[in-house]
Amino acid sequence: NSDLQLQYQLTKFGEADLLLVARDITRIVRLEHTRQDFVANASHELRTPLTVIRGYLETFLDQELPRPLQRGLEQMQQQARRMEGLVTDLLLLSRLEASQHISDEHPILIQDLIRRIHEDAEALATGRGHRFELAIDTDYDLLGQAGELQSAFSNLVFNAVRYTPDNGTITLRWQVDHKGGHFSVSDDGIGIEAMHIPRLTERFYRIDESRSSASGGTGLGLAIVKHVLVRHYAHISIDSTPGKGSTFTCHFPPDMVVPVRGVEAS
Ligand code: ADP
């Protein structure tokens, strides 16, 4: 059977005895693939009708309309946008799940990436009075898939904007030490109670459903971050104090970090 998937577990007893257990997980793997395919296909199929609905809503809203009708159509437009965000995130997640690790690692200019995300975050935070601080080690770059890393880092920065009351401070850091490269986002926002932290990267896990939906999230942001990091041999750590703020840090192993190429002497 060429599809056969086995999971092995090796346990050592005392000095010389070893126990090898092989478990047949073929059915579990097949079911998981079926689930992933279903989510990918369903998200893809939802895209076209949503685009049509959005198109008509825009046309209607261009006209002079009675107030209640206009308000109703605006609500529909807002919900259609939310659904589009969900479909986009579901598609991205299923693409990330399709293979375990990234295959081609190109150095990405992490400084440029952070500056671009910073600009987008300032646009999102317009009128909120947030202050952004950047602390970037300009000597090192990161190996990885630029598009995926942009999605992951943006999710963390946009969450900081959304879960920090007006006039907050948000800090973006890229630091390198002997353990590897660390990208972190700190805020002085609402914070998170310790009991929620281990579950935050689960799909659709939310602490406060009404606050999260109102702030425009899809509930998939941190699940996307986790998958992108796993694909880069990296992991996330979350440090938070309710009422004081949070720090989300992405830890990359040393072999994913490369020195920025200096200007060559002529
Ligand atoms: P959402 O779209 O709901 O923001 P995420 O997966 O991005 O989904 O985040 C999951 C939950 O984690 C959020 O609903 C929110 O409760 C909490 N959260 C994420 N980032 C922060 C933050 N910077 N400060 C406080 N809570 C946060």
TrEMBL record:
Main location: membrane
This protein's GO CC annotations: plasma membrane
Enzyme class: transferase
Catalytic activity: ATP + protein L-histidine = ADP + protein N-phospho-L-histidine
Keywords, comma-separated and alphabetical: ATP-binding, Cell membrane, Kinase, Membrane, Nucleotide-binding, Phosphate transport, Phosphoprotein, Transferase, Transmembrane, Transmembrane helix, Transport, Two-component regulatory system
Presence of the UniProt keyword Signal in the record: no
Enzyme Commission identifier(s): 2.7.13.3
Protein localization: Cell membrane
Transferase in keyword set: yes
Molecular-function GO terms, alphabetical: ATP binding; phosphoprotein phosphatase activity; phosphorelay sensor kinase activity
Protein name: Phosphate regulon sensor protein PhoR
Taxonomic lineage: Bacteria, Pseudomonadati, Pseudomonadota, Gammaproteobacteria, Oceanospirillales
Gene name linked to the record: phoR
Residues included from the entire protein: 170 to 435 of 435
